[in-house]
Known about the structure:
Layout: H1 5-24, H2 26-31, E1 54-58, H3 62-65, H4 73-81, H5 89-93, E2 97-107, E3 121-128, H6 131-147, E4 152-157, E5 160-165, E6 174-175, H7 183-188, E7 200-204, E8 208-212, H8 215-226, H9 236-242, E9 251-256, H10 257-263, E10 273-283, E11 286-295, E12 322-327, H11 336-349, H12 355-359, H13 361-370, H14 374-378, E13 385-393, E14 396-406, H15 411-424, E15 428-434, E16 437-449, E17 461-474, E18 477-481, H16 484-491, H17 502-509, E19 518-522, H18 523-533, H19 536-543, H20 545-548, E20 551-559, E21 565-574
Antiparallel strand pairs: 1-2, 1-9, 2-3, 3-8, 4-5, 4-6, 5-7, 7-8, 9-10, 10-11, 11-21, 12-13, 12-19, 13-14, 14-18, 15-16, 16-17, 17-18, 19-20, 20-21
Amino acid sequence: MTQGSFFRVLAAGTIMLLLIGITGCNGFYAKTPLTRASTEQSDAAMFVSKQAPVMVSMLVNPERLQAFERDGELSKLKTNLLANTGIDYQEDIKPWLGNEITLAVTSLDIDRDFENGQQPGYLMALATTQPEKSGEFVEVLFSKRALAGASLATEQYKGVKLIYDNQIPPTQATPLNALNPRTEVAQIEKEKVKNQNPLAGAVVGKSFVLFANDPKVLREAINNVQAAELNLTSSSKYQQAIKQLPKEALAVAFLNLPTVAKWQGLKPEAQIYDNQIISLVSNSKGLLAETVLLAKEKTSPPSAQLSKPVGALEYIPAAASLAVAGANLNGLGDSDLAQLWQQVTAALSASPEDVISRLLPPLADVQKQWGINWKEDIFNWVQGEYAIGLLPRQEQTTPDWIFVAQKSDATAAGISHLDELASSKGLSLNSFSLNEQKISTWTQLSAAVNKSDQVKERESFAIQAKVLGARADLGNYEIFASSVEAIDQALTAKNNSLMNTRNFQDSIAAIPQPNQGYVYLDWTKSQEILERQLPILKFVEVLGKPFFKDLRSLTLSSYGSDTGLLKGGVFFQFNS
């Protein structure tokens, strides 16, 4: 294990504790969403530097999640996290643990000397309700490390007692022989300590227990408290961010994006936003993960926002696995929703490909077949409402697609341009009636030998038509689809549309209004598609199996009118 692995595992475990607890007991949870009594933000932020790459805070006691547990996920996770540590959660931690667990990457390199390798600093702050008991826990924990062969030291630093592994003892450190009475046992098990992660601990005042992977991290944390201008709470960006958070947030993460990018070896082409804050909020329908990205300077005004559901969704069947809906497609590329979606997919896929290529592959295929550019040839003339849906088909791996656009003065010219592009690619334009509705299709004609023909003197041929696209003019909307079957489903969708389903209504009800539209994914129907496009999801699903096994859908949106920040959220809905 690397030196930071102890803290990384605990960080992942903290978030999973929250997610599992929130989603664990569906029947009880649907009636009683999890809330917290306090409306304050992280108190442990006073230990964290303004330059810290990331801080994650869980603002609810794990025991409050226990009431929502199902199938023992919480108990299993706590047991697994503390495996091989000699720590028993019920006896050693539960009696004194308060309502906050905060983890932070405090710096990219503890000694700031990159020549000897990069060693990030990790800090954990646990709120305590019983300082004496938590102090005893720290003493016992390090006693066990001493018995395993560690050489320990204590130090008084600005009135706080530090205890840590004495790998390179500072001049002011005193060997802690009192905690290592069994010298012969330590010698026998000397080799074991080599496999332990470096650890330092301290009890600060009557409020927090601190752990770190180096005593330097603890000293800096204490400095940050005593020199308030150094800590995160004094950051104007942090204060701006927490003002955007809902008071009922159960967990919060704050990121210094340029430093995080440097830590992960990323070199963003354009760094528009320099800070991000993420919160988790529980409600009676699911879990809302809300994010606020703070820009370096004022950005372009957000796109026009919607105060009611998009009417074009009435033509997207309830069977859709994915749906995108909004207004003013000709401005979508510069909207908050597009920027948020591109950031999410880029982080998951580490790919420079655009959103259409990664998550809407059927539409990307149209681009290749027709030689069109969706943004230039279609999006530019869609000025009103729009909706895009993907429909799974059992007989083929690639789903059908439906695209609905509200008519405008530019619609006729836009469709005429599409006809010209289709003709230039050798496609034929044909029309026919389908249930008394006129349908136009772009077809690819080919000739094949008619095998049923018994005439020997000459071969006969049958003309075959492959539909590459279909279109219908219906009232205030133009409907496009990948097949005749798909457009037929769109034309009859009003009887069973996605917008009229209970799941979709519950999802968009959780998204604040007004907003800039939605990206809706039915997890069961779109899981295979997403895994093919974003392979990292399979790994994430393994880590969060209890969370994903009950996931029904997720809905992404952006909202807010501030030109200095981008605000949005992802709503997770679970099976009841």
